[in-house]
Amino acid sequence: MAKAEKIIEKIAAELIMVESDDLPALASIHEDFIQLNGCPGIDSSLASEAIKACADLVEKIILNDV
Question: Is the pLDDT of residue 18 over 70?
Answer without folding.
Answer: yes
